[in-house]
Amino acid sequence: MKRLDRTEIIFKVLSYVLLTIFAIACVYPLVYVLAVSLSDNAGYGSNSVVLLPLISNGEGGIRVGIASWGKNKNAFTDIVLDKEFWFAYCNTIFYAFYGTLVSMIVGITGAYALSKTRLMFGRGFNFLLTFTMWFSAGIIATWQNFIKLGIDNKYGFILGLGFNAFNIILLRNGFKGVPTEIEEAATIDGATEFQLLTKIYIPMSKSSIATVTMFYALARWNGYYWASILLGNYVNKPLQVYMRDKLEEGNAEGAQSWETLHNYSQDSFMFAMIICSIIPIIIVYPMMQKYFAAGVNLGGVKE
User: Fold this and answer.
1) Residue 257 domain flag
2) Does residue 55 contact residue 42 with C-beta atoms inside 8 Å?
3) Owning domain of residue 57
4) Nearest CA to 92 among 289, 283, 231?
5) Which class for 10: exposed (0-12), middle (13-18), buried (19 or more C-beta within 10 A)?
6) CB-based contacts of 207: which residues, under 8 Å, 6+ apart?
7) Segment 92-106, tens digit of pLDDT
């Protein structure tokens, strides 16, 4: 085994130190948000929350701990009992799941067609696809189109935002990475275009497809702007819009009014909602992480 020289040892030590600092910087905000969400008014008001939640000991002092779920309710208790929160949560799951499904169907079929040199006017279609990334009609014109096309409802919202040029280009380049010899062999055996897509291209492009799927899912889950404009009513309101509305309600009531009704701060309530809202992403993201680097590389390689 080759021994490392002095410069290599220094480089490795510095690399590990920098990566450790970067990891702590990424994890700490989440730890702080969790600590604040579990702290009560006295604990958070002491401005001493750093890593662990602080609660009042009932004698004017502050101690480290977690507020009980019984007599002294915390923010998570009220969120669990908030029907509007879970209604908005279900709406977000609906938009994320079916929106991603529709987007992937459109993206995969469109990318497969655009990856073929035999596609009539293929270069023109590819140019038009790329052109939409450079220029847009503007927010007002886009909003007017959405309204006139009836996209201001739950199902129209899914269909109207189901197209993303950048993601389709990633899939198209990923499909171009499939060897043409395999397609030619399957064509000789009598495979149809649908069989080529489902039996060859999709299985051989799992990394690109998984990466783009996660991109779509994250965009749907975190989507706020168009959802707030097009889905403002209670029935269709997603989680991000609901959280923003609750924040505005709390600001209108004022901190003192909030504290008279709850034994925790308004920030604790908002942070608790944030923790609840990112649970699905925390569960799914690590499982998809292994596909990201390979998927982006496949989508960016051109021969």
Assistant:
1) no
2) yes
3) 1-72
4) 231
5) exposed
6) 174, 291, 294, 295, 298
7) 999 999 999 999 999
